[in-house]
Amino acid sequence: MPITAEQQAQIDEERARSQPTRRAVAPGMEEHLYTAYPVLDHGFVRVIDYMGDDAAITQAARVSYGKGTKSVSNDEGLIRYLMRHWHSTPFEMCEIKLHVKLPVFVARQWIRHRTANVNEYSARYSILDREFYIPAPEHLAAQSVVNNQGRGELLEGAEAARVLDYLKADSARAYDHYEEMISDEGQAGLARELARMNLPANIYTQWYWKVDLHNLFHFLRLRADAHAQYEIRVYAEEICKLVADWVPFAYTAFEDYRLGGATLSDRALDCVRRMLAGEEVTQESSGMSKGEWREFRATLDGPAEA
């Protein structure tokens, strides 16, 4: 259960309350406000607030560029122009505030994006819930033999069962000791700020995360990528759905130029030109390293068929 009955009651109350406003609203995002969308086994993402829409992006761009944008006939065309030419400032006019519940080890990856405002649940002040991320069997994989930070073949049978037993038992034991250390039943009890250090990285935390659209797109470009770790990628994919309804023109341009696009080096472009001219280009004649060539060919060939 990603949210408690008490949290759901609060969400229902917030969604039932509305008031007139003169500020710009995005109908798609209004439908998402406050709703908690489940992620992983106990996590969720929900929109607390947002500012701006597609029109806010083009409004800011036209203030900045003035007559230079008159050749762009519509807002969608202008947004695609801005995305195509890496004009980031207009996208900073939109902001979103999310409430996210996520495992601590995912939060440690997420916080590497230092361009947002974050306020996290305090384990110095409050007691963390007994909720841990335990991977589904289809996400238990061995270490990749070609990527030091990736996964390889799935674990199966007795080995998979052994790993799951360890994860569940270690999580439960650590939390039992946490509860015992902070207990005040006839003892002083260890301070919460010290007792928390015994908890595993798969325990859930929560935070409010506020970010502008430009930096959100940067986050999504990296974390919604197929090479991102599964546990953070599923959060990014859920956020993508929200952004698509919030700023549909901007998200479509982002999907086209960033998620679905590719950046080629000068050397790679030279190889493409030589190939188009009919030359057979190999790794040895390309001037690229084996790793560069492998990535270049993957870009040209597209994703491998399952």
TrEMBL record:
<dbReference type="GO" id="GO:0006231">
    <property type="term" value="P:dTMP biosynthetic process"/>
</dbReference>
<keyword id="KW-0285">Flavoprotein</keyword>
<keyword id="KW-0545">Nucleotide biosynthesis</keyword>
<dbReference type="InterPro" id="IPR003669">
    <property type="entry name" value="Thymidylate_synthase_ThyX"/>
</dbReference>
<feature type="binding site">
    <location>
        <position position="218"/>
    </location>
    <ligand>
        <name>FAD</name>
    </ligand>
</feature>
<feature type="binding site">
    <location>
        <begin position="109"/>
        <end position="112"/>
    </location>
    <ligand>
        <name>dUMP</name>
    </ligand>
</feature>
<dbReference type="InterPro" id="IPR036098">
    <property type="entry name" value="Thymidylate_synthase_ThyX_sf"/>
</dbReference>
<comment type="function">
    <text>Catalyzes the reductive methylation of 2'-deoxyuridine-5'-monophosphate (dUMP) to 2'-deoxythymidine-5'-monophosphate (dTMP) while utilizing 5,10-methylenetetrahydrofolate (mTHF) as the methyl donor, and NADPH and FADH(2) as the reductant.</text>
</comment>
<dbReference type="GO" id="GO:0070402">
    <property type="term" value="F:NADPH binding"/>
</dbReference>
<dbReference type="GO" id="GO:0004799">
    <property type="term" value="F:thymidylate synthase activity"/>
</dbReference>
<keyword id="KW-0489">Methyltransferase</keyword>
<comment type="pathway">
    <text>Pyrimidine metabolism; dTTP biosynthesis.</text>
</comment>
<dbReference type="GO" id="GO:0050660">
    <property type="term" value="F:flavin adenine dinucleotide binding"/>
</dbReference>
<feature type="binding site">
    <location>
        <begin position="112"/>
        <end position="114"/>
    </location>
    <ligand>
        <name>FAD</name>
    </ligand>
</feature>
<comment type="similarity">
    <text>Belongs to the thymidylate synthase ThyX family.</text>
</comment>
<feature type="binding site">
    <location>
        <begin position="212"/>
        <end position="214"/>
    </location>
    <ligand>
        <name>FAD</name>
    </ligand>
</feature>
<feature type="compositionally biased region" description="Polar residues">
    <location>
        <begin position="1"/>
        <end position="10"/>
    </location>
</feature>
<keyword id="KW-0808">Transferase</keyword>
<dbReference type="Pfam" id="PF02511">
    <property type="entry name" value="Thy1"/>
</dbReference>
<dbReference type="GO" id="GO:0050797">
    <property type="term" value="F:thymidylate synthase (FAD) activity"/>
</dbReference>
<feature type="binding site" description="in other chain">
    <location>
        <position position="196"/>
    </location>
    <ligand>
        <name>dUMP</name>
    </ligand>
</feature>
<dbReference type="GO" id="GO:0006235">
    <property type="term" value="P:dTTP biosynthetic process"/>
</dbReference>
<feature type="region of interest" description="Disordered">
    <location>
        <begin position="1"/>
        <end position="22"/>
    </location>
</feature>
<feature type="binding site">
    <location>
        <position position="223"/>
    </location>
    <ligand>
        <name>dUMP</name>
    </ligand>
</feature>
<feature type="binding site" description="in other chain">
    <location>
        <begin position="120"/>
        <end position="124"/>
    </location>
    <ligand>
        <name>dUMP</name>
    </ligand>
</feature>
<comment type="subunit">
    <text>Homotetramer.</text>
</comment>
<feature type="binding site">
    <location>
        <position position="120"/>
    </location>
    <ligand>
        <name>FAD</name>
    </ligand>
</feature>
<feature type="active site" description="Involved in ionization of N3 of dUMP, leading to its activation">
    <location>
        <position position="223"/>
    </location>
</feature>
<protein>
    <recommendedName>
        <fullName>Flavin-dependent thymidylate synthase</fullName>
        <ecNumber>2.1.1.148</ecNumber>
    </recommendedName>
</protein>
<feature type="binding site">
    <location>
        <position position="89"/>
    </location>
    <ligand>
        <name>FAD</name>
    </ligand>
</feature>
<keyword id="KW-0274">FAD</keyword>
<keyword id="KW-0521">NADP</keyword>
<dbReference type="GO" id="GO:0032259">
    <property type="term" value="P:methylation"/>
</dbReference>
